[in-house]
Design goal:
nine-stranded mixed sheet, alpha/beta, two-stranded antiparallel ribbon, globular
Length: 244
C-alpha cells in the first residue's frame, strides 16, 4: 500500500460559486514520488480535522493566498494580496494536530509561511517594504524555470536531499511574503542571496520541512525537483509502518 498524503487546497470564487482548487502539479508530484494524494477541503470542525489525519501518513501544505494580517497580530499592509481567512484557520488547526501526532509534513510557498505562523513565528507581509535589500522574488516568469539560487545549510535535511548540488540550489520564485523570524523549534536551512529565508526545518519533530520556492512546478521539467517529494514519501512510509 502506498502512503496517503493529505493535501490542502486553494479556495476561490468563480461566478459567485465557491470552489476548492488544486493544481495538478501538486498531485502529480505526490503520485510521481510514490504517494496517494488525498485532497483536504477546509473545515473548522476539530472532529473533521482529526478524521482527516486518521486517514493519512503525511500532510502537504500547498501554495496560494497571502496569510491574514490578523493572524500576524499586525495591521494590514497596503500591499497585502488575496486572503482566505477560513483556509488560514483550518490549516493552522491541521498543522498543530499533525505536528502533535508527529505526522510528516511538507510545505511550499504559502505552506512555509503558514507553518511558521502556526508554530509561533513571525512573517513579512511584504518583503519589498519590510526587508531592506530584498531582491525581486515575484517575476512574471514560467514557474517551471529557475530564477535564483538558494544557499543550503550544511548538515540539514534539505542539503542531504540535494547532496549533489554543493549546498547551492537553483529554484523558481513567486512570492512577496516570507518568514521573518522562525518559530521556536525550527531552524533556517536555506536562504536567498538577499538573506530572505527560503527553507526551514523542525528541530523537534521527525520530519517537518518547508520551502519558499515551488518544487512541484520544477519537478515536471527538472529531475532534481522530485527529490524533495521522494524524501517526503519515504518519511510518510516510515510513519505508515511505525509500531503503534
Amino acid at each position: 500500500m502506498k502512503p496517503k498524503i493529505g493535501i490542502t487546497c486553494y479556495m476561490d470564487t468563480v461566478s459567485n460559486v465557491k470552489y476548492n482548487m488544486l493544481s495538478t502539479f501538486n498531485t502529480n508530484a505526490i503520485l510521481k514520488a510514490g504517494g496517494s494524494p488525498v485532497i483536504f477541503p477546509a473545515s473548522s470542525d476539530d472532529e473533521v480535522i482529526s478524521n482527516y489525519l486518521d486517514m493519512v501518513d503525511g500532510v502537504y501544505f500547498t501554495g496560494g493566498e497571502d496569510i491574514s494580517p490578523i493572524l500576524l497580530n499586525e495591521e494590514p499592509s497596503p500591499y497585502i494580496g488575496k486572503l482566505s481567512y477560513d483556509r488560514d484557520i483550518f490549516e493552522i488547526k491541521l498543522f498543530k494536530e499533525a505536528a502533535k501526532r508527529d505526522i510528516p509534513i511538507l510545505g511550499v510557498c504559502r505552506g512555509i509561511q503558514l507553518i511558521n505562523i502556526a508554530a509561533g513565528g513571525k512573517n513579512y507581509q511584504d518583503i519589498y517594504k519590510e526587508h531592506e535589500g530584498a531582491s525581486y522574488h515575484n517575476p512574471k516568469a514560467d514557474m517551471q524555470d529557475y530564477f535564483h539560487n538558494v544557499y543550503l545549510e550544511k548538515g540539514s535535511i534539505i542539503s542531504e536531499i540535494y547532496k549533489d548540488f554543493n549546498n547551492r540550489l537553483m529554484v523558481n520564485s513567486s512570492h512577496h511574503q516570507a518568514v521573518k523570524i522562525p518559530a521556536e523549534g525550527f531552524k533556517v536551512t536555506g536562504r536567498a542571496k538577499d538573506n530572505i529565508i527560503e527553507c526551514i526545518e523542525s528541530t523537534k519533530n521527525t520530519f517537518i520541512l518547508a520551502t519558499q520556492w515551488h518544487p512541484e512546478y520544477l519537478q515536471e521539467k527538472h529531475e532534481e525537483g522530485i527529490l524533495i517529494y521522494e524524501r517526503f514519501i519515504q518519511e510518510a512510509e516510515k510513519y505508515r509502518t511505525r509500531d503503534v
